[in-house]
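Submission sheet (multi-component)
Chains listed below:
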Amino acid sequence: MTYNLLLLPGDGIGPEVMIETRRVLGWFSQNRNLSFAIEEDLVGGISYETHGVPATDQMMAKAKAADAVLFGAVGGPQWDKLPFEKRAERGLLRLRKDLELFANLRPALCFDALKDASSLKPEIVSGLDLLIVRELTGGVYFGEPRGISTLGDGSRRAVDTQVYTTGEVQRIARVAFELARLRGKKVASVEKSNVMHTGILWREEVQKVHDTEFPDVALTHILADNCAMQLVRNPKSLDVIVTDNLFGDILSDEAAQLTGSIGMLPSASLGAKDPKTGRQPALYEPVHGSAPDIAGQGLANPIACLLSLAMCLRYSFQRVEDARLLEQAVEHVLAEGYRTGDIMQPGMTKAGTAEMTNAILKALDKAA
Ligand code: IPM
Ligand code: MG
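Outcome: structure written.
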């Protein structure tokens, strides 16, 4: 079985962490009876520089044809002033929308070796294992109308639209409940039903899906502001969080920091499984973004990208054992004391992007 992968390194530290991911892919194809057909293309600012758009139709066609997309990062200050549709981020948003990747899984796991690297007290974060399930193709990210207009008196007016349909809420709720069944069997549904109509609809629909299909899972409803507080007060009380596109964006950065560094966090963006072919569109992406301040210096933490590959092995290829192998190799090098700058602690071994991967490859060799 050969898996077709499209690699989209993108901008900033994206290419640096993607090179390391290629090395680890090489290890798996050499040692684990897995074969990959790998293509690579441009996305984001680099695509704009080359083609004048952050995502070309050709790239989109490749992404649709691939079994999975591995994505690096997009964006940088040099593209911030571009017209809205040309901005680097639009490349990523087009991939999400056109591939209908409505379910974004963002696990926040605190590795034991890193419990002192978090800005929170170790007892608050040690053993933390939570999963944010973020709706990714709806809400205020895509709602119409949107835009900036000039009013009669010369002042300007901006509008974005937060919108959800019952179908959109139900399908993301199902993903969250199904995943909760494989974990702690608890779902916290997060919205602002005290001030937003979308919040009321969200709460009602999640409750309905729960009552009719998942009564065995414990469901609570939390207002988004309160959830932000619970995440830093008692994060271990949470298991699966299901929330909309914007709240999920914000809360997942907050959850990332609990784990020590956003440089550690992987994500998976999944579409609906085709009932006939079993094919499921999927994109895997480190949560950290392009980090232009450290780009090009070999300092980036490759772990988020490598753990995204582990998610790809698990969710797209059903290679759970291989996913565990990679995750354990990461755990192993952290326990050995290897640290990139973002998670550096006194007495540990400082590693650059390539050195960290070298250590992980060595750990894989040892485990295999
Ligand atoms: C994320 C990022 C993106 C988002 C940006 C790059 C468009 O912050 O994946 O969390 O806002 O969704
Ligand atoms: Mg974000």
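Remark: Residues 249, 253 surround magnesium ion (ligand 2) (CB under 6 Å).
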